[in-house]
Amino acid sequence: MKLSNLYLAESVTFRVAGHQDERPPDSVFELGLDIRNKLYRVVPEFNQGTNPERLAQDGLDTEAIEGTLNFYPAGISAAAVPKIVAAIKYFLGEHGVEFGDFIRDKSGLFPGETVYRIPVKLGEQSGAAGPPEINMANVTANVVLNDVLNLGVGLQGQIDARDLLIKIDSTSDSTVRRQVRPSTVEREPGRAAFIDYGIDAERLERHLRGLRALARWALEHHYDEIEWH
Hints:
The chain starts with 10 loop residues before the first strand and ends with a strand. The chain has helices spanning 28-42, 81-94, 138-148, 161-169, 173-178, 201-220, and strands at residues 11-16, 55-57, 66-71, 98-99, 103-106, 114-121, 134-137, 157-160, 184-186, 194-196, 225-228. It has six helices and eleven strands. The protein is α+β, with helices and mostly antiparallel strands. The protein has two domains: 1-14 and 133-229, no CATH class; 24-129, no CATH class.
């Protein structure tokens, strides 16, 4: 399932312009994206979540075929969590992915939040070659495109893959760190708390790694442009 075939509220998808295929995810990173966006479509309660990740790979290695997926149920009713867990197990099985017990834990990245850690291992049948697709929240996409990469663009557009690689490879660690913003909680009497999860360096670095892999794949397979919308 392609991210571009789904409507994701308040998010941006990056892909190789002109490339069309259907293939299973070939890394834990892509597995998390694939299942997360199926959940958006088929489990309405998943959209109630307030965590910007919801379901995502633990760690920065975007090519790993074995690792951990993290499910963050913040904002989702307790009654809906078992339904979402069952759906995650179904989609893991659909891809032939080996997985262990869902371990309930406390998040280190999002202090005070519960996280379900899911050990996963992709089989060889999931190793079909193809470009990654990168999805990020609108706010994060704007920071990556304009504050980190200094492209001066909107949330829909395209760029030459070579130019994107040059921009990413010339980005310094200090440029990334300047965009870090801590999470905050605003509370008003009689109203629900408003949580701004901020932006952390690990997330920005993960997105830059993903965009670099996307641009490299495009050039290696004779595609010129990366597009996003």
